[in-house]
């Protein structure tokens, strides 16, 4: 008989849509990578990814990456408004959230 301690999540995906105009979709994909001996977490809409030894560590690192990227994209846009970035709308929304706790809630984590 297999016990709960022997079960391991190898992959999961969360897709959330924000009711903005236009609607924004955020995807979080976490999966085990045998080559990296750990978990990869990614958010393709922000072109963000992170690694961790556990799903929780990978998610924490992804949240940090998303917030850092959002702040950087907004800052670059303020300095160079003529530069186009398809991820800017997502970045501006994330930057307005203001905290990791709010981002975690938005992403359903």
Key words describing this protein structure:
alpha+beta
Topology, please?
Elements lengths: L10 E8 L5 E10 L4 E6 L4 E5 L2 H25 L8 H10 L2 H8 L2
Antiparallel strand pairs: 1-2, 2-3, 3-4
Helix pairs in contact: 1-2
If you had to describe this structure to a student in words, what would you say it looks like?
The chain is of the alpha+beta class and 109 residues long. The protein has one domain. It contains three helices and four strands; from the N terminus they run ββββααα. A four-stranded antiparallel sheet has the order 1-2-3-4, covered by helices on one side. A hairpin with a 5-residue loop joins β1 and β2. The protein starts with 10 loop residues before the first strand and ends with a helix. The model has no long low-confidence stretch (mean pLDDT 91).
């Amino acid at each position: 008989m297999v016990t709960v301690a022997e079960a391991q999540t190898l992959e999961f995906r969360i897709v959330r849509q924000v009711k903005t105009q236009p609607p924004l979709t955020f995807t979080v994909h976490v999966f085990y990578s045998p080559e990296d001996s750990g978990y990869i977490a990614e958010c393709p809409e922000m072109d963000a990814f992170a690694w961790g030894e556990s799903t929780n560590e990978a998610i924490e690192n992804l949240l940090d990456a998303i917030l850092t990227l959002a702040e950087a994209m907004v800052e670059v846009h303020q300095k160079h408004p003529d530069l186009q970035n398809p991820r800017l709308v997502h970045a501006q929304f994330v930057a307005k959230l203001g905290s990791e706790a709010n981002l975690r809630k938005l992403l359903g984590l």
